[in-house]
Design brief:
The protein has 321 residues and is mostly helical. It has 11 helices and 6 strands.
């Protein structure tokens, strides 16, 4: 009995010591000196994962990682995706991150006021996306926003999400439309919102700019807004690259709001949520005109005489510069 007890006790001591050693190694800071990114493929084995992590310098004991995952049953629970690992992350931290599926999502920003062509160029130039663009999008179809995506996600998927986001914002804004605003369809709302977006970069002004265009529409006045003329000249395919000239105002295009009454046939860019909301709920004012103030904003006027005075003031400021 004593002869059997001694080897069993020794084995128990070895087992406990080994468990303590493994536990200690699992908690120790790892070798990673700066953050690293690793993509775990779908269906990857623990051996493949351990190799990738070792190759990236995140761990230095791939065998121990595989053993630990096998013992605690997590080798089949890893989630596929791209992971960001922090410097010094322990073996336990590595396992917990992959089992919890703490996938790293990248971000792509589509700024307000860009044409659809410009937005598609941003999406197409994002190196972490995959696939050619086959999804179609008209002017005003894409919501300016910052979108999260996983490495390797298809470009078409991002476009579909931007279209779905715009569709949702369009619906919500139209349902809150002020009954006195002379817009007949959600599309007209986006057209007006796109003009508002291009006319001012000052958030506090959107409501007033919207009120000017709404007031002019109510009175049957031409909108006479420069951004629509620029769109008529460029068709949204490029930047004009120069100041708008007086002769440009004579271009024969349905987008030329100096020549034709009402709204242009389509949006001239992709407006953001704030401009869309301003289009259907503008501030209440008697303003019919506005011109740049020289400080980034605009001076608003109720009469043509007052407007002409503001224009003269703006021209003086331009000459000084």
């Amino acid at each position: 009995m004593k002869k059997f007890f001694l080897p069993a006790a020794a084995a128990l001591i070895v087992l406990i010591s080994g468990g303590y050693f493994v536990q200690k190694k699992m908690e120790q800071p790892g070798p990673l000196s700066k953050e690293a990114y690793v993509v775990i493929p779908k269906g990857a084995s623990s051996r493949t994962v351990a190799f990738k992590l070792d190759e990236s310098g995140i761990i230095d004991n791939p065998l121990l990682l595989r053993l630990a995952m096998r013992l605690n049953g997590t080798d089949k629970l890893m989630k596929a995706g791209e992971y960001r690992f922090e410097p010094g992350i322990s073996l336990r931290g590595v396992i917990q991150k992959m089992v919890a599926g703490e996938v790293f999502f990248r971000k792509l920003t589509l700024p307000e006021g860009l044409t659809t062509r410009q937005m598609l160029e941003i999406i197409n130039n994002e190196p972490m996306l995959s696939g050619e663009i086959t999804e179609t999008a008209a002017e005003g179809d894409l919501l300016p926003e910052t979108y999260s995506f996983s490495r390797g996600e298809r470009r078409d998927d991002v476009i579909r999400r931007a279209k779905a986001a715009m569709s949702q914002v369009r619906k919500e804004a139209w349902n809150k439309k002020n009954g006195n605003v002379p817009l007949k369809t959600p599309q007209e709302m986006i057209v007006l919102a796109s003009i508002i977006e291009k006319e001012t970069g000052v958030p506090e002004e959107r409501g007033l700019v919207a009120s000017v265009f709404v007031n002019r529409l109510k009175k049957g006045m031409k909108l006479q807004t420069d951004p629509t003329v620029i769109y008529a000249l460029t068709k949204g395919e490029k930047e004009l690259g120069r100041a708008l000239l007086k002769k440009d105002l004579d271009v024969d295009s349905p987008f030329n709001t100096y020549k034709y009454y009402g709204l242009p046939p389509t949006p001239i860019c992709n407006p953001g949520r704030a401009s869309i909301e301003a289009a259907v709920n503008p501030e209440i004012s008697d303003y019919l005109y506005f011109v740049a103030s020289g400080d980034g904003g605009h001076n608003f006027a109720k009469s043509l005489n007052e407007h002409n005075s503001n224009v003269a003031q703006w021209r003086k400021l331009r000459k000084r510069k």
